[in-house]
Design a protein that fits this description.
The protein is mainly alpha-helical. It is built from 3 helices and 4 strands, in the order αααββββ. A two-stranded antiparallel sheet has the order 1-2. A two-stranded antiparallel sheet has the order 3-4.
Amino acid sequence: MHAMTVEGLVGASASITLSNTAMGVYKEARNKGDTATMERALGYANEMRDQAEDYKVVADKGMEEDAKAAKEKAELERQEAIQKRREEQEKLEERIEESRNANTDRVEISQEGKAAVESNSGLEHVGADGTGAGTTEEPVTYTKTGEVVPVEESPDLSVTV
């Protein structure tokens, strides 16, 4: 809380309390019929009310400065959060790139292999044993060691809705 806000609130509270005291004196003077004391008490109560309004202006200025400071702080925190997210995103992208590079194998096709693919009509593929055993109609799976494992055919299923 800004110092001006505190000053305004405390001053206004004190002024209202003193105004209430003056109003109490006014009521006693009214009951006794003492008009001179009544006038002095009302004048003092009005002065305290005016002073409380002045303190209200001070408190309003302090609250405006509080709001401005809070807005600046929120903006600074928002900028820091954005910067932190950017840094985290960059680190994540670096880790993803490292994991892509670390766990992948690179395959290069020799000139002979390229020539074999170009000369092939596209209907047959060279099998693992170097023969034309594999065709486009016979899918195969390779193990980690490079051996050919035929794919088991799944039974034909029919679904009617």
